[in-house]
Amino acid sequence: MSAVRYYAQPQKVEAFATSLLEKAGLPPEHAKLMAACLVQADVRGVDTHGMARLEQYLSRVNNGLVNASPKLELVEKTPVVTHLDGDNGFGFVVASKGMAEAIKRAEVYGIGMVTVNHSNHFGMAATYVIQALEAGMISLVFTNSAKQMPPFGGKETLLGISPFAAGAPSKNEIPYVLDMAPSVVAKGKIRRAARRGEPIPEGWAYDKEGKPTTDSNIALDGMMAPIGGPKGSGIAILMDIMSGVLSGAAFGGEVGDQYKEAKPQNVGHCFIAIKPDVFIGADEFKSRMDTLVQRVHAVAPASGFQEVLFPGEPEYRLSKLRSGQGIPYAEAEKKMLDDAAASYGVPSLEFSETPLAD
Ligand SMILES: NC(=O)c1ccc[n+]([C@@H]2O[C@H](COP(=O)([O-])OP(=O)(O)OC[C@H]3O[C@@H](n4cnc5c(N)ncnc54)[C@H](O)[C@@H]3O)[C@@H](O)[C@H]2O)c1
To answer: Alpha-carbon distance 347 to 88, whole Å?
Structure first.
């Protein structure tokens, strides 16, 4: 097991990913958007949902399982509620359009809601929360995903470990960015451990028989553990209601598994954007958010903690660091990116074995 890390500059990684995705047939603006989402995940330290997934996405589009150039069709239901058919496009492209449409409606009416079907895996849910924050909006983001987890009390997978995300802007303090899978960890963390040849902590996952395991490869074939038993299971069901049942997408264990099944995933999403101005005014809202952040930060740390952080703060700090030092990739990830460059005939990404200068 190698602990060597290879650092790459985020802008260069984005340009590299854009070239690969264009070679795979995506229109330039879609390739750029998807590349930016992947790099944003890596920069924020959510490297389970960044470039490490590119090989799999390229293979899906090459095999005709994802539409490289979807026609995104909107069906207006009411002035504030719209449905978007993702035409089996990449989740990043479809979801960005979904959130953009929710924001557009919230700008005018104070709230906008968009349901989405015929989409695919959309990566890090915080991406769409950050998109809403940039427009000054509070947001709620829902998605569903392939079955990985049993409902509470069950021994068979039925539920996705679909992340719930929410955001709220602040004035001078850090914004609220909650992005959480209803499982103890995201499956990407188990996939990364398996790729790196590392074990996983007990409590993350079960084997096929429902027994706890620390073997990342056994866990990959087994089941994910929900957070808080019935609570995590209940949130996972809510994700399926908002994203699947309501939108017309697949639900209840029928979302395609992008790693195992050669069929379109038919993932569903739901995006809600809320303009704080309509309630107490944008400025007052943001000032009150600052107060909330300050009060959270001022709480005395418990034993074993140095400080109390706001949701999204660990990722925010990492993004500051990685923007300067570069994104650290493991040997296996570097090899995957080098192989992709060779097979698509694009110049390899530049790596440094030491952190880059700020
Ligand atoms: N698209 C999909 O189908 C899918 C499925 C599962 C997970 N994911 C993604 O995987 C990523 C990881 O998910 P996860 O559940 O493992 O996240 P996580 O457990 O790393 O973090 C969950 C939340 O806790 C916050 N947090 C962490 N440490 C904190 C601290 N010390 N103080 C305050 N807040 C803190 C984080 O900011 C985050 O909002 C997410 O980006 C998620 O969207 C995607």
So the answer is: 29
